[in-house]
Amino acid sequence: MSNDFREWIAALVTPREGSSGPRPEELRASDADRERVISVLTDAMADGRLSRLEHEERIDAAYKARTLGDLIGLTRDLLPPDQQPIALHSRPVAAVFRNESRGGRWVVPSTVPVSSIGGKVDLDLRDALLQSRRIVVQLAVVAGTVNMTVPEGVRVVVAPGARVTQFKDHTRPPADPDCPVIELAGYVWGGRVIAKSPKPPKKGWRR
User: Fold this and answer.
1) Can you tell me the distance from the alpha carbon of 84 to that of 158, in angstroms, rounded to the nearest whole number?
2) N or C: which end of the chain has fewer CB within 10 A?
3) Residue 207: pLDDT above 60?
4) Could you tell me if 179 and 132 are in contact, meaning their C-beta atoms sit under 8 angstroms apart?
């Protein structure tokens, strides 16, 4: 299946209106975000991609970074886009007779267009940064599957008017009624959407 056709399918569910709130690159960086970038920089110096001076300069810039936008430029020339420690892309997720996944540390925009035409989409939100407390997953699924791994404390609901009949919610109910919400909109024909919570960590053996 050609890239042009996949892009056309994805465009069907891409929101036309602009999203409110700060842009992903304007969001504040956390200490964990800085450490992710520093780890990549350290590996790059170890294998010769960065000189010691370049490494020191970029490490200093990482510690001084205030926003995610300040961090992403420090590793852009070291790794391909799908291996970057922080992903700020806003392109739709489209699986047309293939498998597509999105995970790691990525900024989830307020509306996420997801299309699956005879394919499978895996959305891993465990390390993701939600741009707002209400995320709309705009679905266009025909004979496809969408698997979502949702962090603890986030609720998944079906939007009013959405044609999402095959939805299996295996997430653990949040204790906070005012928790962030992921809303499933759009349609699912001949396919399914599955939401699940992360597996709890294994308990070690006790003597």
Assistant:
1) 32
2) C
3) no
4) no
